[in-house]
Amino acid sequence: MLRFEFSSLINAPVEVVWNFHERSDILQKLTPPWQPVEIIRREGGLGVGAISEFRLWIGFIPVRWIARHTECIPYQLFIDQQIEGPMQSWVHRHQFQTENGQTRLTDIIEYELIGSEITESLLHRWVNARLEDMFRYRHRVTQQECEQK
C-alpha cells in the first residue's frame, strides 16, 4: 500500500473550511485546470454514501472514476473510497483540525496501483509528484477562499 500526505494551515475557523468543502461546486473549484478530468456528478454532499464521478483522460482513453464517502464526522473528517477507477485501491481521508484558532487541513491517501510491486516501485514517485501538484493547488484555493471570510 502506498501513501501520500499533504497538510497546510488555513487561517480560518474549522467551520469555514468545512463549509467550503460542502459547496455544490467544490469539485470544479478544486480541480486544477491542467488536469484532464471531467466532473460527471456529485451527489450527497460530504455524508456517508455521497458519490463523486469523474472521467479521466489518459491520453485519448477515457477512464471512469467513482468514489463513495464511507465515513463522515462533521467538522473533523470525511473519507472517500474508489469503487471504480484506475487504481487497484484508493482511500482518501480529509481531516480538519483546529489549531490555535486556525484549521489544519490534511489529506491522506492510501492507494495501490494496478499491476505488480514492480509497477508500484517504478510509478509511485511519479504518482506522488502528481498528487503533490494537485493538493498544493487545492490547498492554495482553499486558503484563498476561506481566508477571505
Which structural traits does this protein have?
single chain, 149 residues, alpha+beta, Alpha-D-Glucose-1,6-Bisphosphate, Chain A, domain 4, 29% helix
Topology:
Blueprint: E1 2-10, H1 14-21, H2 26-30, E2 37-43, E3 51-58, E4 61-73, E5 77-84, E6 87-99, E7 102-113, H3 117-146
Antiparallel strand pairs: 1-7, 2-3, 3-4, 4-5, 5-6, 6-7
Pfam family, one: Polyketide_cyc
Domain Coenzyme Q-binding protein COQ10 START: 10-125
Protein name: Cyclase
CATH class: Alpha Beta
Round the Cα radius of gyration to an integer and report it. 15 Å
Report low-confidence residues grouped into runs of 5 or more: none
Report the span from N to C terminus.
Answer: 38 Å
Average pLDDT: 94
The DSSP helix count reads 3
Which topology does CATH recognise? Alpha-D-Glucose-1,6-Bisphosphate, Chain A, domain 4
What structural category characterises the helix and strand content? alpha+beta
β content, as a range? over 45%
Question: What characteristic shape results from the CA principal axes?
Answer: globular
- The topology string of helices and strands comes to EHHEEEEEEH
Number of separate domains? 1
CATH architecture: 2-Layer Sandwich
Number of strands: 7
By CATH, the superfamily comes out as START domain
Spatial strand arrangement across the major sheet:
1-7-6-5-4-3-2
Q: Mind describing the biggest β-sheet?
A: 7 strands, antiparallel
Residues in helix, %: 25-40%
Organism: Aphanothece hegewaldii CCALA 016
Protein name: Cyclase
InterPro entries: COQ10_START, START-like_dom_sf
